[in-house]
Amino acid sequence: MLVIPVKEGESIERALKKYKKKFERTGVMRELRDRQKYTKPSMERREQKIKAIYKQQLRQEEE
């Protein structure tokens, strides 16, 4: 449960904005999306390796 302290006289829009930001930081939606489908550990490692290679190539191009 998220608790958002709202100051007296503060607008609802600002409180809602605080709530959305705090909710996003918790990572609930990201975890929910990850749980919708199962990916094998070998596939996760392969994707991480591909991303690392891609990032490394970008860094080499900058130099």
Description:
The protein has helices at 12-26, 28-36, 41-62. It has 63 residues and is mainly alpha-helical. The longest helix has 22 residues, at 41-62. The model has no long low-confidence stretch (mean pLDDT 92).
List keywords for this structure.
63 residues, mainly alpha, 3 helices, 73% helix
Query: What's the tally of helices?
Result: 3
Radius of gyration in whole Å, from Cα? Answer: 20 Å
Q: What coarse outline follows from CA principal-axis ratios?
A: elongated
**Largest sheet geometry:** none
Average per-residue pLDDT, rounded, comes to 92
Write the layout of secondary structure elements.
Layout: H1 12-26, H2 28-36, H3 41-62
Nutshell version of this structure?
The protein has three helices and no strands. The protein is mainly alpha-helical and 63 residues long.
